[in-house]
Design a protein that fits this description.
It is found in: Cytoplasm. This protein has 323 residues and is an alpha/beta fold. It contains 15 helices and eight strands. The chain has helices spanning 2-6, 30-38, 50-53, 62-75, 113-118, 120-133, 149-168, 186-195, 206-214, 232-247, 265-270, 283-291, 295-299, 302-307, 311-320; strands at 22-27, 44-48, 81-84, 139-143, 178-183, 201-204, 251-254, 275-278. Strands 1-2-3-4-5-6-7-8 form an eight-stranded parallel barrel, surrounded by seven helices. Helix 4 runs parallel beside helix 6. The chain is globular and about 60 Å long. 42% of the residues are buried. The structure holds phosphoenolpyruvate and magnesium ion (MG).
Length: 323
């Protein structure tokens, strides 16, 4: 299998009926970035910046972050890189005292963008570092754990302000660095039609979307049987998010574990997805799967998949689709 997959390193990702599909890599370390590049990823679809903040006492400042993001951008040699702002909290605690440790329910607490907006200086440092890296290649900013349109209004305002300051102090930065939201809370998926015009792109985070839609802790082994990406409610939210974004002419990528699991590739193509972001270790498997599927045939089964009332029925449809 290793040999067969290795042959796919320099092959385009394209369905059997000729539709180009973009496979991006999720990354959190320089090793992931190197692997992504070597396997022919379309870019970095999700750079988890928490990596820079964990296991240390002092927070990284603007300069340290800038160097890390610049190296990331240079490492991808001109391919687009999506950098996610800090997503600490809940399962991603730190040791620098940033994350509140007296929350009764941290998964529903001060995490992701909620934490960033409460620490404007911290967020400004990160946005400035990302903007400065945009002088070295195409960069996009992605915001985690969004649950309300107002949060993105605040982030957009901060981004613009940082841009102005950097320009007036003589920094060269790209024009119009794109800003997008993670859709990983059901409220964001449901409210997306009202929000989409103020976003440049969206990224679906199914790891959290499954958790919050089904009220099932993503890390609780006791509930693993209930943590189900094929739950009809989850599929509806994914399908709606894809359709809303596409109707508004915005790019939509799926970057949860589901994107890198070839059991779900046919399903996601059927729902209209064209941009996937996954751990680089599974990129070639997914490329092999995509290249064997017929997208237009799959698209005709989207409504049957969305009508199916149970996981079993959804799986039965998928089996007929040959995945
Ligand atoms: C997700 O929630 O699906 C996601 C991609 O982000 P993370 O796994 O980092 O929470
Ligand atoms: Mg998430």
């Amino acid at each position: 299998q290793g040999k067969r997959l290795a042959l796919l390193r320099n092959v385009d990702t394209r369905t059997r009926d000729g539709v180009p599909i973009a496979l991006y890599a999720n990354a959190e370390s320089p090793a992931d970035v190197a692997q992504a590049r070597a396997l022919g990823a379309a870019g970095i679809g999700l750079y988890r910046t928490e990596f820079l903040f964990l296991q240390r006492k002092e927070l990284p400042g603007e300069e340290e972050q800038f160097l890390a993001y610049r190296d990331l951008v240079l490492g991808m040699g001109g391919l687009p890189v999506t950098i996610r702002t800090l997503d600490l909290g809940a399962d991603k605690a730190d040791s620098s005292g940033l994350v509140l440790d007296d929350e009764e329910n941290p998964a529903l607490g001060v995490r992701g963008v909620r934490l960033s907006l409460r620490r404007p200086q911290l967020m400004a440092n990160q946005l400035r570092a990302i903007l400065r890296a945009s002088a070295y290649g195409p960069v996009r900013v992605l915001v985690p754990m969004v649950s309300a349109a107002e949060e993105m209004v605040s982030v957009r305002r901060m981004l613009k302000e940082c841009e102005r300051e950097l320009r007036s102090s003589g920094h060269e930065i790209a024009h119009n660095v794109e800003l997008g939201a993670m859709i990983e809370v059901p409220a964001a998926a449901l409210a997306l039609p009202g929000m989409i015009r103020s976003l440049d792109f969206v990224a679906i985070g199914t790891n959290d979307l499954v958790q919050y839609t089904l009220a099932v802790d993503r890390n609780n082994d006791q509930l693993a049987n209930l943590y189900d990406p094929l739950h009809p409610a989850v599929l509806k939210l994914i399908a709606q998010t894809i359709a809303t974004a596409q109707k508004a002419g915005r790019r939509v990528k799926l970057c949860g574990e589901m994107a890198g699991d070839r059991r779900y590739t046919a399903l996601l193509l059927a729902l209209g997805l064209t941009d996937f972001s996954m751990h680089p270790g599974v990129l070639l498997e997914v490329r092999e799967t995509v290249n064997a599927l017929d997208r237009s045939a799959l698209r005709t089964h989207a409504s049957a998949l969305l009508r199916a009332p149970t996981r079993e029925r959804i799986q039965r449809v998928l089996e007929r689709l040959g995945s």
